[in-house]
């Protein structure tokens, strides 16, 4: 019967409209009847989708500076990608076999591309970026506007108040709202892409080729986050208003803390890639003919059903392929007949039964802890590196995309190879997970001590060992009328003291000197500098920027060890639940990971980062972006959160291993005579409830 159905399907699909179709009409869709071409298209689409969904994480600090967002708000923005995804992912399992899957994938990809374009809209509807609010234009006079002026000749502070109109506030809220809507649509559009694509490949590929195709799909897909950080590294080197540069140019470099890169350009490029990758899906058929290799192998298996099956990579169920194929066909027939009401009734019961399984629950909790760590690190590690080691956003993304992401990919691959080559049992999979978590935790400890303390900032951070005479906004700048919301940092190279503006340093004039590459701006006649010396434009350089490489190497090694647990923990879930509940268990696993990890973790990390801020920029009386952090406190709290989640994962894997040992011990104590009775009891319980449960 399977051969007849497959042959009939192949006859109708190959002719694309029947035998009466002419040859020219049959040639055009021939490539769209190849599962290999579908795998190629789907690999490129998922690569582009992960690029556009991960790109925001590479430019999170830039978006904060551009629109005056706190880390908590930016973390919530990053988490909104999972809101729409989580709300709809359960229904995908129900409608999976009832819709035209390639077209649904194409529609979802088009929605992702539109969401990416919507993310760029705030750039075009907002006014040009003003990195110095003390002057009306971002030209060369912005440096002079920050100088120390006598109170009698200083301009009135009314312009900054005028900018706080109700229209400005409404525009700011509208811009932020657009980004939240775009992130939600980005998650909604990504719902059908991966589940429908994987099921489509598994349905129409030969069962021995399906693992190979899925392996290729995941291998190409895993490069997406790394490419997102690489794209961010390139785009953030460009100025944000590259499409509308002021006439006099800008006096900023990428090392300036006021620099904002072209964050929107990456979304534009990624959206174009997604739209291009989505176009072939509207030409794939609803049902594709099985591969020729599939039909030959099936005939061979049916003809040699009595002969022993050679050992391979497949499960033991292949020992009776005819029965297995018939069983799969029965399950396929049952699932479409399940109504929505019956699906809703069955789902909670199977959900509770799955969650009551201790191995499943503990493994999922360990994965939740690990995903919390990964989500926080992926979202805020670039910003952490920028602040902790005083490096540019472009360089931070380059380090993460070039070292950390490839290390995580290697860890996933090595974990899969160990499980396959060593034929690890569930207990050994648990031991491997425990070992990987323990080593990851140990490599996390040195990160508490690798970092830079905050240098002295006049009026904000005081280092008693350097200049005990400095106090809050020193009296040397009292004759000046310095605006409180201005930000144009300068550095005294002799004492390594940083001032918020030249005005706060008491400087009355500026001098530009031509250097080897670019002109260097100095501010002279500064009353707060010894000997009324000069200060250098820009923040003080960090004394320990060289430590960023050892830090990122330890982070990458920890990421590889954490990723080592991915495949064995997944195998623990598959082997720990009933066979008819495996599909639903995997769906529940991903749903819990989104709800408990990927959604709250960026907000938790962002809130922890905000608590380490020592100087906030104010916009219309509200806190906007943080300009200075306590670096030691930032490092301890950020790495401390990572340590907390890694410890939770370690404890869960330890409990899993203890339960597996207990089960193994109990199974060994039982007599061999009880095994047939136990198997008979399982068979007696199965046939009545299996069709209803497996249909989910």
TrEMBL record:
Residues 1-10 have a biased composition (Basic and acidic residues). The chain crosses the membrane at residues 37-56, 76-97, 104-125, 170-191, 212-240, 260-284, 359-381, 393-419, 431-451, 547-574, 595-618, 638-660. Residues 307-322 have a biased composition (Polar residues). Residues 1-24, 306-326, 665-696 are annotated as: Disordered. One of its GO terms (molecular function) is bile acid transmembrane transporter activity. GO terms for cellular component: apical plasma membrane; basolateral plasma membrane. Residues 470-530 form the Kazal-like domain. InterPro entries: Kazal_dom, MFS_trans_sf, OATP. Keywords: Cell membrane, Disulfide bond, Ion transport, Membrane, Transmembrane, Transmembrane helix, Transport. It is found in: Cell membrane. It comes from the Eukaryota. It is a multi-pass membrane protein. GO terms for biological process: monoatomic ion transport; sodium-independent organic anion transport. Gene3D superfamilies: MFS general substrate transporter like domains. PANTHER family: ORGANIC ANION TRANSPORTER, SOLUTE CARRIER ORGANIC ANION TRANSPORTER FAMILY MEMBER 2B1. NCBIfam families: oat (TIGR00805). Belongs to the organo anion transporter (TC 2.A.60) family. This is Solute carrier organic anion transporter family member. It comes from Marmota marmota marmota. The lineage of its organism: Eukaryota, Metazoa, Chordata, Craniata, Vertebrata. The gene is SLCO2B1.
């Amino acid at each position: 019967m399977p051969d007849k159905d497959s042959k009939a399907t192949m006859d109708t699909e190959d002719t694309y409209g029947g035998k009466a179709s002419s040859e020219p009409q049959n040639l055009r869709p021939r490539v769209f009847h190849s599962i290999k071409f579908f795998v190629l298209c789907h690999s490129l689409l998922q690569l582009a989708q992960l690029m556009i969904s991960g790109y925001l994480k590479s430019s999170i600090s830039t978006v904060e500076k551009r629109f005056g967002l706190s880390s908590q708000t930016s973390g919530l923005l990053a988490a909104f990608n999972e809101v729409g995804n989580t709300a709809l992912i359960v229904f995908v399992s129900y409608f999976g076999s009832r819709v035209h899957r390639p077209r649904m994938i194409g529609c979802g990809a088009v929605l992702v591309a539109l969401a990416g374009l919507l993310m760029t809209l705030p750039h075009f509807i907002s006014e040009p970026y003003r990195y110095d609010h003390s002057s009306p234009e971002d030209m060369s006079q912005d440096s002079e506007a920050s100088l120390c002026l006598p109170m009698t000749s200083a301009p009135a502070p009314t312009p900054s108040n005028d900018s706080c109109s109700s229209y400005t506030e409404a525009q700011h809220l509208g811009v932020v709202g657009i980004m939240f809507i775009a992130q939600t649509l980005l998650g909604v559009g990504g719902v059908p892409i991966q589940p429908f694509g994987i099921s489509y490949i598994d349905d129409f590929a030969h069962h021995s080729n399906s693992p190979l195709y899925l392996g290729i799909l995941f291998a190409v897909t895993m490069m997406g986050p790394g490419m997102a950080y690489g794209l961010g590294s390139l785009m953030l080197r460009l100025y944000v208003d590259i499409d509308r540069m002021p006439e006099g140019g800008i006096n900023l470099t990428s090392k300036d803390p006021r620099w904002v890169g072209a964050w929107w350009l990456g979304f534009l490029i990624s959206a174009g890639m997604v739209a291009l990758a989505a176009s072939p899906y509207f030409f794939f058929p609803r049902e594709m003919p099985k591969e020729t290799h599939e039909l030959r192998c099936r005939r061979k298996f049916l003809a040699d059903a009595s002969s022993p099956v050679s050992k391979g990579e497949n499960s033991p169920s292949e020992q009776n392929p005819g029965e297995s194929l018939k069983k799969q066909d029965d399950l396929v027939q049952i699932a479409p007949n399940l109504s929505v009401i019956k699906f809703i009734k069955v789902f909670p019961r199977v959900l509770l039964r799955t969650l009551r399984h201790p191995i499943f629950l503990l493994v999922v909790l360990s994965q939740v802890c690990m995903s919390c760590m990964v989500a926080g690190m992926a979202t805020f590690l670039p910003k952490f590196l920028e602040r902790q080691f005083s490096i540019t956003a472009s360089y931070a993304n380059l380090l993460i995309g070039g070292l950390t992401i490839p290390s995580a990919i290697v860890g996933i691959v090595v974990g899969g190879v160990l499980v396959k080559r060593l034929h690890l049992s569930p207990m050994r999979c648990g031991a491997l997970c425990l070992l990987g978590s323990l080593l990851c935790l140990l490599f996390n400890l040195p990160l508490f001590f690798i970092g830079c303390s905050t240098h002295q900032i006049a009026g904000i951070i005081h280092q008693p060992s350097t200049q005990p005479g400095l106090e809050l906004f020193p009296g040397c700048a009292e004759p000046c009328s310095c605006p409180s919301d201005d930000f144009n940092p300068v550095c005294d190279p002799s004492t390594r003291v940083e001032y918020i503006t030249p005005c706060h340093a008491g400087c009355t004039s500026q001098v530009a000197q031509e250097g080897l590459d670019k002109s260097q701006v100095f501010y002279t006649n500064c009353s707060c500098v010894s000997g009324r010396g000069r200060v250098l434009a820009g923040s003080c350089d960090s004394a320990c920027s060289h430590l960023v490489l050892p830090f990122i190497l330890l982070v990458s090694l920890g990421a590889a060890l954490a990723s080592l647990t991915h495949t064995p923990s997944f195998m623990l879930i598959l082997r720990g639940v009933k066979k008819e509940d495996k599909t639903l268990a995997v769906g529940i696993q991903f749903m819990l990971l989104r709800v408990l990890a990927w959604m709250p973790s960026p907000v938790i990390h962002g809130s922890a980062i905000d608590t380490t801020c020592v100087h906030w920029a104010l916009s219309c009386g509200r806190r906007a972006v943080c300009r200075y952090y306590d670096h030691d406190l930032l490092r301890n709290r950020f790495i401390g959160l990572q340590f907390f989640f890694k410890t939770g994962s370690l404890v869960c894997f330890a409990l899993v291993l203890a339960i597996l040992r207990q089960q193994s011990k109990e199974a060994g104590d039982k007599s061999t005579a009880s095994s047939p009775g136990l198997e008979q009891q399982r068979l007696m319980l199965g046939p009545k409830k299996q069709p209803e449960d497996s249909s989910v």
